[in-house]
Amino acid sequence: MKRRATAPPYPSLPTTAGDASTSAVVAATKVWLERAVIGLNLCPFAKAEFVNERIRYHVSPARSQADLLRDLADELTRLAAADPQVCETTLLIHPEVLSNFAAYNQFLDKADAVLRRLQLEGTFQIASFHPRYQFADTDVDDITNFTNRSPHPMLHLLREASVARAVAGYPDASHIVERNLATLRRLGAKGWRELGIPGEVGQTPPGT
User: Fold this and answer.
1) Exposure string over 172-184, b if 16+ CB within 10 A, otherwise e
2) Where are the domains of the chain?
3) Cα–Cα distance, 22 to 85 (Å, whole number)
4) How confident is the model over 138-159, as pLDDT tens digits?
5) C-alpha span between 154 and 31 (Å, rounded)
6) pTM for this structure?
7) Using one digit for the tens of pLDDT, what is the confidence trace for 90-108?
């Protein structure tokens, strides 16, 4: 069961070109993918796309929600036109906007509205990750929130058909959420910090 949160062809290198800060954002995201998402097996379907370089990392320069919505529409359109064998999924990373988690969480309804406007609802879904992610009915320092904590705010654009195939081919897919919660609780705050993930997400509050 999904947990609720609180209130043209692709280029051969599917990473947005940019300055050193953009490179650092992408590098931190890849460390997080390798050590947490894949290393802890939080998403059993991520490794193949990461190893085969079918993930597009787009670092948005947006500084307003309106700019980010335009960027989201562009990335959804680009992904829809892409060959899944070249680019299966996109991480739309937006370090300059929606650093406040409550605002980010409210923005997700606007993001879904873009799917509907582009008539891509049912073709794509948008998963959410944020450095301060907090699920409903948890304390801010609950270690289980780190299943969805990333170095920078991002929107993960996923192909619905690919998700359905992956889930159908994975034993006990319905237990992934529960297994991830158990993994984080066993790991604890000290274990998470030892992963060495850059940025705020590499930290946990004292005593957790």
Assistant:
1) eeeebeeebbebb
2) 20-201
3) 25
4) 999 999 999 999 999 999 999 9
5) 15
6) 0.89
7) 999 999 999 999 999 999 9
